[in-house]
Design goal:
The complex is a heterodimer. By secondary structure, chain A is α/β, with parallel strands linked by helices. Chain A has two domains: 167 residues, Periplasmic binding protein-like II (D-Maltodextrin-Binding Protein, domain 2, 3-Layer(aba) Sandwich); 194 residues, 3-Layer(aba) Sandwich (D-Maltodextrin-Binding Protein, domain 2), CATH 3.40.190.10. Chain A is built from 19 helices and eleven strands. In chain A, strands 1, 2, 3, 6, 10 and 11 form a six-stranded mixed sheet that branches. A three-stranded antiparallel sheet of chain A has the order 8-7-9. Chain A has a two-stranded antiparallel sheet with strand order 4-5. In chain A, β1, α2 and β2 form a beta-alpha-beta unit. In chain A, α18 packs antiparallel against α19. Chain B is an all-alpha fold. Chain B has one domain: Orthogonal Bundle (MetI-like fold), CATH 1.10.3720. Chain B has twelve helices and no strands. Chain B is flat, with a radius of gyration of 25 Å. The chains are: A alpha/beta, B mainly alpha. At the A-B interface, α1, α11 and α18 of A face α7, α9, α10 and α11 of B.
Chain lengths: 480, 303
């Protein structure tokens, strides 16, 4: 018996060790997995939160590091931006400083500096940058010494600091360079306090132009045309969609992007923004219609590779390659801009534009994506000079040529060098509204509730019941 | 006569204990206390949980987080799954462990056989989850099945099975992984107990004409019962805390969530509820711990 206990004791030690080490390993996975999602899901706007970036729901707090369209593809060597026009220094003196705060680091930060270089050279203004992703750091700064200019990936500063923000129209900004919905979004009590500096959009569908041509398909321009095309493909014995959305603990997010695009097509951007602010309950018939349409496509092997089992078990990274395999397993995949880079990496022989390309989601009345917004806390001459540069034609041209995502400034249109970015910019230019990702913008527990509902809908559970559950999470998250 | 230098004052034992007590205080007592306090607070941990109540909805006041832990459908599903894990995985590991302990006792390659069964214990749970994800993998796009089990099924002419996303089968598929991981642990301890059995008793039984079946159930099993109970209670605690396998393999989707997963899901976004679930988990574990300690003391006293 004594021997038993000796061994038992030793075993206990092992168990203690294992259990002691176990959680550590778990946390490691937990922290890396979501950040991977965040990097991939580059167009998701980061959730405004000070919480650590552990839970999948808060994944997008780690903001995208690189613009999705430029990062994975062979980004053209950044051309040295050349001033194509005059830069108005608005009376700023050489040596004046502008303090800037943003979340960009590394490549993104150097892209931004490249964009600003001509302005810095022309006016002699010095940019003093503070790069942080921590909303608490921003909050502390705003309460003591706010940055002159703030770039932030959510619109939350608009509500939090509206009393301290300066009217942009008084700072040399021409609002007519921006679509009305941007101006409307950034206006509080008749004062324009916020404009977007850059956006990433994901209301797109990837396809193979070569396959479309071979089968005599044309790119649909409305939801009806998309429906017709899908049925035509099924009639021809082809599988229209690659819907796979497995993503470990974040499984379902690809489906939530698809459903948001369907909502943008069926109901429009105001409706989607209504879901985000809680004025539209998530169990509304409009949402139900979008879910039914999605579930029909995502659960039937006629419409998607592998049917419901394929959708929930196929990793989104594998699914996005399915339309481009030989022979193609599907005709289309709805995925953000990063998909092009994945396709290029997996199939280096395929050419963008002929073998793989994307079109805007047919009939979408607005786009979804992420945006970095700019705000001003000071109205010095140097701030005016900087903002008038960014929001004017010269800055816009440099921004587009540098290829730092999409510049929502209308003056940037036609100035892009990367063809994918140019196309995304065109889709944005034709959009009538902008919506951030629903699941990332509404605080927890909404996001995971939404994913679960999508999984259950695909697996054939009653959609209305699922939506009622999500609606409860929506109202709880929004404090209603 | 004890030399003076070896006499202890009243303080000395405490000095010896101080480092251990300090570590216990900082790393066990304080966090446990803090967890309990936070379980009565709201999602940010800054005010009472009662503030999370909405008018017209059921509310347990300051115990609101416990209302969630005990009545929310997601929690009920997790509790049900944990119960299922307990009912199936604990006997599963103990039975498999015992079987291997008995069989290995009779073969020539005992240590090799036992090493193989024990080996999964050396793999991190995360690693095991990843490995078994491959075993259960289902290819849905028409290519060959690269998951081991589905490849075998297809070779035998059957349809591939979605082991992880099919709600009828996935919980059991996960439990198989749990048994695979822990059976070696049970086997090692039980094997030691079997080895410790006095040979003459078994021999006497066999001489008296008992069949092997009877020798096991009437002689061996009663003698190793204390060890079986220790192993069982240890496994109960392990299974109550089960997390890694579910997290890695299904992420808690498809109705596989267990208590610890629910706790993890909420830890950042809703501290109060997460801590209430943690307290619930502690409360479920404590009786088993107490039983285990009592049993252990009784054993000690017997010797």
């Amino acid at each position: 018996m004594k021997k038993t206990y000796k061994i038992l004791g030793a075993m206990m030690m092992i168990v203690l060790l294992v259990t002691a080490c176990g959680p550590a390993a778990t946390t490691e996975v937990a922290t890396t997995a979501p950040s991977a999602v965040a990097t991939i899901e580059a167009t998701q706007p980061p959730v405004e939160t000070t919480a650590p970036t552990t839970a999948p729901t808060t994944a997008p707090t780690t903001a995208p590091t690189t613009a999705p369209t430029t990062a994975p593809t062979e980004a053209p060597p950044t051309p040295a931006p050349t001033a194509v026009g005059t830069i108005d220094c608005m009376g700023a003196q050489s040596g004046d400083q502008v303090t800037v705060m943003y979340q960009w680091t590394g490549n993104e930060e150097s892209l931004f500096n490249n964009i600003m270089a001509p302005f810095v050279a022309a006016c002699g203004v010095k940019l003093v940058a503070n790069s942080t992703r921590d909303a608490a750091v921003l909050d502390t700064a705003v309460k003591s010494t706010p940055p002159d200019v703030l770039f932030w990936p959510t619109s939350s500063p608009l509500n939090l600091y509206s009393s301290q923000l300066k009217d942009l129209t008084q700072l040399g900004v021409d609002p007519s360079n921006y679509a009305d919905y941007w101006v409307k979004m950034g206006t509080v009590n008749g004062t324009l306090l916020m404009l977007p500096a850059k956006t990433d959009i994901k209301t797109i569908i990837w396809y193979s132009p070569a396959q479309f041509e071979a089968n005599g398909y044309t790119v649909p321009t409305s939801l009806d045309e998309l429906n017709t095309l899908v049925e035509q493909m099924v009639a021809n014995g082809q599988v229209p969609w690659a819907m796979g959305f497995e993503s470990a603990a974040a499984t379902g997010w690809t489906g939530s992007d698809f459903i948001q695009d369907l909502l943008l097509a069926l109901k429009g951007p105001d409706y989607v923004n209504g879901i985000i602010d809680g004025s539209v309950p998530y169990n509304d018939p409009g949402v139900l219609a979008a879910y039914q349409m999605y579930a029909k496509w995502a659960s039937d092997p006629k419409y998607t590779v592998g049917g419901a089992n394929g959708t929930v078990n196929t990793n989104f990274g594998d699914a996005l390659l399915q339309p481009f395999s030989d022979p193609p397993q599907a005709m289309m995949v709805k995925q953000s801009g990063f998909a092009g880079g994945n396709v290029a990496a997996e199939y280096p022989d395929l050419k963008y534009g002929t073998d793989y390309d994307f079109f805007g989601f047919p009939g979408a009345q607005g786009v979804q994506g992420g945006a970095d917004f700019m705000f001003a806390f000071n109205d010095t001459a140097a701030v005016k000079a900087m903002l008038s540069y960014i929001t004017g034609p010269v800055g816009a041209a440099n921004w587009a040529a540098t290829g730092f995502a999409i510049d929502p400034n209308k003056q940037a249109n036609g100035k892009y060098i990367n063809p994918q970015t140019a196309k995304l910019a065109e889709i944005l230019a034709n959009a009538n509204g902008f919506t951030p990702d629903i699941g990332d913008t509404i605080p927890a527990p909404f996001g995971t509730a939404e994913w679960t509902a999508i999984i259950n809908a695909v697996q054939g559970k009653d959609i209305q019941t699922e939506l009622n559950t999500v609606e409860a999470a929506q109202m709880q998250a929004l404090g209603k | 006569m004890v030399p003076k230098i070896m006499k202890q004052g009243r303080l000395a034992p405490w000095l010896y204990l101080a480092p251990a007590l300090f570590i216990m205080l900082v790393f066990v007592i304080y966090p446990a206390f803090n967890t309990i306090v936070l379980s009565f607070m709201d999602r940010t941990g800054s005010q009472s949980a009662a503030t999370a109540c909405t008018a017209g909805q059921p509310c347990w006041g300051v115990l609101e987080n416990y209302r969630y832990a005990l009545t929310n459908p997601l929690m009920l599903n997790a509790l049900r799954n944990n119960a299922l894990w307990l009912v199936l995985m604990v006997p599963g590991t103990v039975a498999v462990g015992l079987l291997f302990a008995l069989l290995a006792d009779r073969v020539r390659y005992e240590s090799l056989a036992k090493s193989i069964v024990f080996m999964p214990m050396a793999i991190s749970f995360i690693g095991a989850g990843v490995i078994w994800r491959f075993v259960y993998y289902i290819q849905t796009s028409g290519g060959p099945q690269i998951g081991l089990l589905n490849a075998i099924l297809v070779k035998l002419g059957a349809q591939p099975v979605a082991f992880l996303s099919g709600s009828r089968i996935n919980n059991f598929a996960l439990m198989v992984v749990g048994v695979w991981l822990w059976a070696g642990f049970c086997m090692t301890i039980l094997s030691a107990a079997v080895k410790g059995l006095p040979g003459e008793v078994l021999e006497a039984a066999r001489v008296d004409g008992a069949s092997e079946w009877h020798v096991f159930w009437r002689v061996m099993f009663p003698m190793i019962l204390p060890t079986v109970i220790v192993v069982t209670t240890t496994m109960v605690i392990n299974v109550l805390k089960i997390f890694d396998i579910v997290f890695v393999m299904t992420g808690g989707n498809f109705g596989t969530e267990v208590i610890a997963n629910r706790m993890f899901q909420l830890i950042v976004t809703d501290t109060g509820k997460s801590m209430a679930i943690a307290v619930l988990l502690i409360l479920l574990t404590i009786p088993v711990l107490i039983f285990n300690i009592r049993r252990f003391r009784a054993e000690e006293a017997m010797r």
